[in-house]
Amino acid sequence: MIVYTTVATDRDIQQIMELQQLNLPQNLSPQEKNDQGFVTVVHSFATLKKMNDAEPSLVAKEGDAVIGYLLAMTTLTRHDIPVLIPMFQAFDEVIYDGRKISSFKYLVVGQVCIAAGYRGRGILDDCYAAYRKHFELTYDFAITEIHTTNRRSINAHVRIGFKLLHIYTDPHGDVWEIVIWDWRKKNESPAVTL
Fold this sequence. Notes:
With about 190 residues, the protein is an alpha+beta fold.
C-alpha cells in the first residue's frame, strides 16, 4: 500500500537523495531521459533538511521505502541552491494576474521524482493531490520551472493542472518553462498543452 505523507525523518531525506541520484541526466541514457524524464538539481542533505524545516516536503512511501517525492521550497532558501537563483530572479520580474510573482505567497515545487518501477500508476497525480491538500490554505499557488527538453515532466505537469507562465534562458544557456498551478482557481480545468 502506498501512503502519501510529509518528510518526517533523516532517513526519508536520505532516500530522497538516493532516488535523485538515480534520475540525474548523467546517470541516465539519452533514451531514458527522453522517455522517462530526469531531475536537474543535486541537493545536499543539509539543504534538504533546511528546506524541510521551512516546509515539509511530500513523499510517497511503500512500507518504509520512499518511492516518490515532491520537494517544497520557500523563499527562505532561495539563495541556497545557486542553480535556482535565476528562477527566483525571474519570479521577481514576471507578472501574473497583474502582479509580480514575488508579491504572492507561493510555494516552489523544488523537484519531483517517482521511482522508475512505479511510474504510470497515478502516483504523481496522488502526490500532487496530497501536496495541494497540505499547502493550499497557506499558499496561493505552486510554481516551478522545467527544462524545455524534459517533455515527460512538462506533459505530466500540464495533466496535473499547471499552466505555462513564462519561458526564459538562464546564464548557462539552458531554456526553462515556468509553470504555475493556481490553487485559488478551484474550478479551472487543466490546460491541454504547453
